[in-house]
Amino acid sequence: MQKHFLITIGDDPKFLFGVKYVAGFFKNKKNIRLDLLYIAPRFDAPDTDQDTRLQDISRGLSKIYSKMGKEALTLSAEILKDAGFSPKTITCKVMHRMQSTVKDIVEYAKLGHYQTVVLGRRSFSIFEKTFSGSVTDEIIRLRIDFPIWICRNPDARRNNVLLCVDGSEASLRAADHAAFVLDSEEDHSLVLVHVPRKESGDPERVIQDAVERLAGRIPEERIESIILKDSVPAAAILAEADKRQVAAVVVGRLGLSEKKRPAGDYIGSIPVKLLKHVTGAALWITW
After folding, report:
1. Domain count of the chain?
2. S-S: 156 plus which of 24, 121, 176, 257, CB 3.0-4.6 Å?
3. Considering 118, 150, 182, which residue would you say is the last residue of a domain?
């Protein structure tokens, strides 16, 4: 099955973390389409005869950022081509901000029916503010329904993926996403990690449910499972990810203990903690 990813690009060539992560993570470059998107800042000056100087300044700034974006896109495409991706599978687009960067990315992703949106450093910092607590009804209405990969500063030398499971439907959707990404990536194994909590029930059953979800998609020899006993699940997950030097940590937006939380709670406490503290690995959040 073809994989179609959207990678958001910043204008600083030193921080193309999303592009570099994708370039290094995928060993099998076949059947992957990559669309690169740069959202340029928008400068609006009053449209009156008295403000022609401000209009000139606004147009000049727009041109500067558009140029920077095009240069970053060109460099990003070259990184991907050098990594082995076919030029025919890479597209680049500069788009001027219409609403907010978050809204623009979400709406663009929905229109393109992308299976994953990869956030680099610049987009990550914007989304981090959105995920830092309860959000407004306006953001809730965006209804993100696609996985997001957050690449703050991943280590390209890492391999394998850590999948967090807790018995919730959200964690099973995370398993679906991990299977979709890894089905043809034989160099990456999948480690299922479960931190038992009262509401999750039998730990062995939680692991088994996740393994059954992966059946026929990831070979058994590439799957490992571990049960960690810790009163702070996020800390245990982070420690295991660091110990194993995994390339990605996969987690559902809301876990079993949070399924009854108000609709205004856009993202659960564990993903937020992972978002703030994960290092070396990308964080994949599924909705």
Report:
1. 2
2. 24
3. 150
Q: How many alpha carbons fall within 13 Å on the CB side of residue 187? A: 10
Does an H or E element contain 178, and which? helix 169-182
Give the integer Cα–Cα distance in Å for 269 and 255. Answer: 9
Whether residue 156 lies inside any domain: the answer is no
Instruction: Write the CA distances from 205 to 36, 166, 191, 194, 209, integer angstroms.
Output: 41, 10, 16, 11, 6
Cβ atoms of 250 and 174 within 8 Å: the answer is: yes
The burial class, CB within 10 Å (0-12 / 13-18 / 19+), for 198 is: exposed
Over residues 94-119, the mean pLDDT reads: 90
- List % helix, strand, coil for the chain (3-state, nearest 5): 45, 20, 35
For residue 91, give its domain range: 3-150
Higher pLDDT, 65 or 180: 180
